[in-house]
Amino acid sequence: MRVVLLGKGGSGKSTLAGLLSAELSSRGERVVAMDADSVPGLAQVLGMTPTDDWFLAGMATRENGGWRLEGSPADIVDRCSQSGPGGVRFLQIGNADATVKDFEFRRESFLDRWSGTVAFNTVSRTFDDEGGWVVVDLQGGTLQVAGGMVGSSGIAVLVVEPFAKSVLTARRFVGMGEWPAGVRLVGVANKIESADDQAYVETALDELGVPLWATVPLDPAVRQAERNAQPLVTLDPDTPAKRAVAGLADRLTEAARASEALPTTSSS
Ligand SMILES: Nc1ncnc2c1ncn2[C@@H]1O[C@H](COP(=O)(O)OP(=O)(O)OP(=O)(O)O)[C@@H](O)[C@H]1O
Ligand SMILES: [Mg+2]
């Protein structure tokens, strides 16, 4: 099952993507976590060592004015993913920090890196691991969604904070036009501190016709761990944010089971 996290910048996509990946993997599920952001948020949540690599460089080559992937999306995941905590396979578009700093981007390796971006975007839009989970963490805002990065199947999780601007971004997502028929849009309220916060997000999602699947509290343990550079996946399972993400994992698992149980249409 594909799960794509989207929402306003800073709403908590990477935090929830990382915790969700670790939670599913701790239940014995196969998980590929994909970070579509060149500023490494998901990597930090998972506690991956930062590098300057552009991991999928060379995985797409120019052909007839377009690009050809060097293998199937599953091959590319196998060849380019790193092992993360608890057996999560982690695939990252790249890390822009050092490359942007020394302008390498504009020099000879540009095409190589760009080919990695093309390959990553194709893989993250299309890869679905049957019987396993693919969790895609997008950049903030609607641009990647408008560019088709949600793909055409799975569950798109809209992360909404109890702030007007976050709700406005959610409204923009929903109003973007017709979503692919195979994508189910659901909401998660994040950084919730009170019943008022909860009601605010609930009402907003209700007006948008998006079901609320989980409420994640504003969790001081998350804040503290982040300040201490402690990977969030190592937090105690009883911290409120982790418990809430476990609830989201239950909900997603239920949906995955239900979709497996759907009768398949056959032309014969
Ligand atoms: N439930 C929570 N409780 C406390 N802090 C949180 C919670 N969720 C996220 N945060 C904090 O909010 C900040 C933004 O979170 P995160 O990086 O996950 O957002 P994002 O949506 O991925 O951002 P970006 O759009 O920049 O990629 C981080 O400092 C993170 O630790
Ligand atoms: Mg992020």
Word description of this protein:
This protein has one domain: 3-Layer(aba) Sandwich (Rossmann fold), CATH 3.40.50. Helices cover 41% and strands 21% of the residues. It is built from ten helices and ten strands. It has an eight-stranded mixed beta sheet, sandwiched between helices. A two-stranded antiparallel ribbon has the order 3-4. α3 packs across α5 and α7 runs parallel beside α8. The longest helix is centred in the C-terminal third of the chain and has 22 residues. Adenosine-5'-triphosphate binds next to α1, β9 and α9. The site of magnesium ion (MG) has 5 residues, from α1.
CATH homology group: P-loop containing nucleotide triphosphate hydrolases
Low-confidence segments: none
Helical fraction equals: 40-55%
CATH-assigned fold name: Rossmann fold
Strand-residue proportion: 15-25%
Per DSSP, the total helix count is: 10
The total tally of domains equals 1
* Arithmetic mean pLDDT: 90
User: Distance N terminus to C terminus?
Assistant: 26 Å
Largest sheet: 8 strands, mixed
- What radius of gyration results from the CA coordinates? 18 Å
Give the CATH level 1 class.
Alpha Beta
Number of strands: 10
Order of helices and strands: EHEHEEHEEHHEHEHEHEHH
